[in-house]
User: What shape does this take?
Amino acid sequence: MANDITFRISTTRFDEDYAPSSSSRITTNFANLARGEHRQQNLRNALAMIDRRFNELADGENPDSDRYRVELDIVSAALQFDDDAGDDREFPLLEVLDVHLVDTLTGERHQGIVGNNFSSYLRDYDFSVLLPAANGEGKPFTLPEGFGILHGKLFQHFLDSEAYCERYTQSPVVCISVSTSREYHRTGVVHPVLGHEYEQDAFSLTDEYFGKMGLQVRYFMPRGSVAPLAFYFRGDLLADYTDLQLAGTVATMETFQKIYRPEIYNAHEPAGEVYRPTLAHEDFTRTNIAYDREERSRLGITQGRYTEEHFVTPHRAVLDAWLVADVLPTR
Assistant: This one.
């Protein structure tokens, strides 16, 4: 059954000339920056922020903080139904970022970490269509039956696919904001790049959702940062990647979070031993890059319904059969 579903990978350079493809989720970080009248300046400013932050973290033999340049590729994975005809035979399953680190002193290029940002239409369906439908006004909060299982199994199938393994030798790391519904406590672990480690008081819904994707989570407040970031990964986050690779992920994703959640990541006061993030915080500085969070919420619903119409509904029988075959143990 798993052979009925395959993947096709394409890449697009993320630079100041980037324009989102027709299949990109327009709410994703990189696509959102590339819209509107000031799109090119938005992109130029964001890329400059990433370079500056990376050079701060990669400060060995880098006295002028200008030795390195970060290059980013958007990795788009399309899911294909091999035995299913029709207009919806292929669907844009997910997009992530691939980081490349260029040493301008030696000319050497270093492979960074793939993943970083994570964009998924199917996640929009789960969180913006299924979850609200199960939690109407006045109802106690509940998760729909099997919530996140299909998304998680498809993601793991993608990581184990020939398409992924031919291109990438390491597992991805996804880096996002901490949850405003949780409290975080320092553990005493300090990493040279990732900084102080924190632990959450309980798993968030996002933690559990990524867990179904086969990813565990650790929280770190990188050196020079004011709030911890959530890192979702397979394997061993600290042993499987070099400090240079981890610095590339921090520089990229902390920049996005400063733009989209400045109340947390551009706050004037750093997180202490105990930290409870909030978007109601007022002591922060906005970047000069505009972002509309309300529009993002509205578009998440639109994208979730698009997924229902073009992916879940037309392929429900195939997906259900594949999921059962993939989940149940072989005898």
